[in-house]
């Protein structure tokens, strides 16, 4: 195994020679080319076993590469859901065929993936989802709607949750599938947010056919699969935003303070110091949780801590950026790309408290599953799904669900 110093030197030299000099995140073709080159050079899935497309090196090797990569604006965003969430769940629950077919394509950026969980009536309460998957001799037929699906507008494949049994309580009777986003009957409609970008989507499934082997894990056990996948999501979201190259990182906000002549302001200096300290602590928490997971330790609900901390830091940083930028936070000269990016990041910051589960949901999870506090009372946990009358299910007749119209 290559020692850490040699690996770090090789990583530093490779990044210097190949890392993009400009932000190419939104140039999908260029981002794919870089991702493939990064994988072929041995700098993706560094700790994963070789049989799953990884390099089978230590967490220390991975940390060394990430530390070197922090100084660049690498186009990781298009591949984050696939590598951080979909590939891990396929490694954990997928069949040998699913792993063989998909893992290396995900890691190289050949296929971009999305996560299809939330629905108009099932956001924080995902177990209320109504998208239906009905089995026949040829496979599965999916009908329904998803919303807030990041990257769906350019995704090749996705991990889908659909209801396969309405005669059991809502947390049962759900199944996880792999879905081809280019299949007949899949309709993706981008949604524009207040930052001006279209990063998430509505997705409609109109009698979309899936093969029998599209199931991930066990039929009707998709809720447990979803819980496992959300653990990966919360670590990924909680630890990803605090890179040095991030627009709202403490190091970049120090540069912003210098640019606007506010480095001598005592309160702003204090906030910058506190943000830097908390940012470092959050990073170490993420590293600890990730290394424990890679060693086979069940981190349980502690991933929600990383996610909550990351969201709070992002919102604090955005507020500080406004105070540092002044009027430049809302208006800037044409061609001032730096000011435009800061304003976009400020507008996008509130989403950190929503994406991947709201801060309120994360606090509930931490309270109940980490601190052992009493669960909030529920009235629908033991009732068959077809009997529920809530959300977009309200007012639909039992006969409609029997006919497969509950989606």
TrEMBL record:
Q: Which family does it belong to?
A: Belongs to the acyl-CoA dehydrogenase family.
Q: Where is this region: Disordered?
A: 386-407
Q: Domain Acyl-CoA dehydrogenase/oxidase N-terminal, which positions?
A: 5-110
Gene Ontology CC annotations of this record = plasma membrane
Q: Which domain of life is it from?
A: Bacteria
Listed cofactors = FAD
Cross-referenced InterPro entries, in alphabetical order? Acyl-CoA_Oxase/DH_mid-dom, Acyl-CoA_Oxase/DH_mid-dom_sf, AcylCo_DH-like_C, AcylCo_DH/oxidase_C, AcylCoA_DH/ox_N, AcylCoA_DH/ox_N_sf, AcylCoA_DH/oxidase_NM_dom_sf, Mycobact_Acyl-CoA_DH
- What is the designated name of this protein? Acyl-CoA dehydrogenase
A Pfam family the protein falls into? Acyl-CoA_dh_1
Keyword field? FAD, Flavoprotein, Oxidoreductase
Q: Which residues form the Acyl-CoA oxidase/dehydrogenase middle domain?
A: 114-208
Q: List the Gene Ontology MF annotations in alphabetical order.
A: flavin adenine dinucleotide binding; oxidoreductase activity, acting on the CH-CH group of donors
Record domain Acyl-CoA dehydrogenase/oxidase C-terminal: where? 220-371
């Amino acid at each position: 195994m290559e020692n850490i110093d040699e690996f770090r030197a090789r990583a530093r030299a490779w990044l210097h020679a190949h890392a993009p000099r400009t932000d190419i995140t939104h140039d999908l073709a260029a981002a794919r080319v870089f991702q493939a080159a990064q994988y072929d050079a041995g700098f993706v899935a560094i700790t994963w076993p070789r049989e799953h497309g990884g390099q089978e090196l230590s967490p220390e090797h991975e940390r060394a590469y990430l530390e070197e990569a922090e100084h660049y604006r690498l186009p990781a965003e298009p591949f984050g859901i696939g590598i951080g969430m979909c590939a891990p769940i396929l490694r954990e629950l997928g069949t040998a065929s699913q792993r063989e077919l998909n893992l290396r394509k995900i890691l190289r950026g050949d296929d971009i993936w999305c996560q299809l969980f939330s629905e108009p009536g099932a956001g924080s309460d995902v177990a209320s989802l109504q998208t239906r998957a009905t089995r026949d001799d040829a496979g599965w037929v999916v009908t329904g709607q998803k919303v807030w699906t990041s990257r769906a507008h350019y995704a090749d494949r996705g991990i889908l949750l659909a209801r396969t049994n309405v005669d059991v309580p809502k947390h049962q009777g759900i199944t996880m599938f792999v879905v081809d986003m280019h299949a007949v009957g899949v309709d993706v409609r981008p949604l524009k947010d207040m930052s001006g970008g279209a990063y998430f989507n509505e997705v409609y499934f109109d009698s979309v056919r899936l093969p029998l082997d599209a199931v991930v894990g066990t039929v009707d056990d998709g809720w447990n699969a979803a819980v496992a996948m959300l653990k990966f999501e919360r670590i990924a979201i909680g630890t990803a935003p605090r890179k040095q190259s991030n627009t709202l990182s403490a190091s970049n906000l120090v540069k912003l303070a210098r640019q606007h002549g506010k480095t001598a302001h005592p309160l702003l200096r204090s906030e910058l110091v506190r943000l830097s300290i908390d940012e470092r602590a959050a990073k170490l928490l993420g590293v600890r949780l990730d290394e424990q997971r890679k060693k086979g330790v069940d981190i349980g609900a502690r991933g929600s801590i990383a996610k909550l901390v990351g969201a709070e830091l992002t919102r604090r940083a955005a507020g500080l950026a406004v105070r540092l930028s002044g009027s430049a936070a809302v208006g800037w000269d044409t061609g001032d790309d730096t000011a435009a990016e800061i304003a976009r990041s400020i507008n996008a910051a509130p989403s950190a408290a929503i994406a991947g589960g709201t801060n309120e949901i994360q606090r509930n999870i931490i309270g109940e599953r980490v601190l052992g506090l009493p669960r909030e009372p529920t009235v629908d946990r033991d009732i068959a799904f077809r009997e529920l009358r809530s959300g977009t299910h309200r007012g639909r007749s039992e006969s409609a669900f029997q006919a497969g119209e509950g989606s």
